[in-house]
Amino acid sequence: MSGPKTREPLRVGIAGLGAVGLEVAKRLIAGVPGLKLTAVAVRDAEKARRALPQVGESIPVRKLTELADDCDIVVESLPPALFRDVALSTIDKGRILMPLSVAQLLENSDLIERARQKGARILVPTGALVGLDAVRAAAEGTIHSVKMVTRKPPAGLEGAPYLREKGISVSGLKEPLKVFDGSAREGARGFPANVNVAAALSLAGIGPDRTQLEIWADPNVTRNTHTISVDADTARFTMTIENIPSENPRTGKSVAPSTVAALRAIVSELKVGT
What we know:
There is one protein chain. The protein is an alpha/beta fold. It contains ten helices and ten strands. The chain has helices spanning 19-31, 45-51, 83-92, 103-107, 110-118, 132-138, 161-166, 184-190, 196-204, 255-267; strands at residues 10-15, 35-41, 73-76, 96-99, 121-122, 143-152, 177-183, 212-217, 224-232, 236-243. The protein has a five-stranded parallel sheet, with helices on both faces. It has a five-stranded mixed sheet with strand order 7-8-6-9-10.
């Protein structure tokens, strides 16, 4: 009898070591069977080394566009302006791209067709949106409507392009203020660092133009709160998620473990959930 087959671990590269990227890196270094953190791409290597001593030693630092050279999977955790460069280089090398700046996929939708042509894959982790499986299942039938209402502490919304353009201030609020009401596509454009959840929801369901989105700056909440209502031919459901913000107030603490879970699902013998 032959023994169990051993597979080479998949090589993971991480673009950006902010609050989420750093946590994903630490979890991979601690050990996830079948996966190996092979390289990182960062703007400030010295800062990255202080946060993660292995950087520059056992884990080399690469340029953004070279990360996919010797990595099978690239996890993107970057400011929106840097998204396309790393996404293009990963896709053009036929690798797996795991974008955390999901809103940028709506602005760069040509990448999906490009991935098909190049034999690459784009895998979006669940992130802050539990229940994404239910939306994807409903999308196999007919979804009539999807609406999401997001409430965030005002500090988590400050600096958003939409607020600057409209001259909306969220500082010193004493009561909730609705700052946006429109489609997920418009929301992704106006709040690129805030609505990755809405972008993922729209991609799983009926698309960014039909997915409705409200955004509230709410001084009464301490967690990023998302309420999703879906009306489909197979089910009608409503879910509310309260995510504890990470060190970056725009991002929930659930994003890093969700990313690791998505990576683990690629190599695991057992995968639970669609």
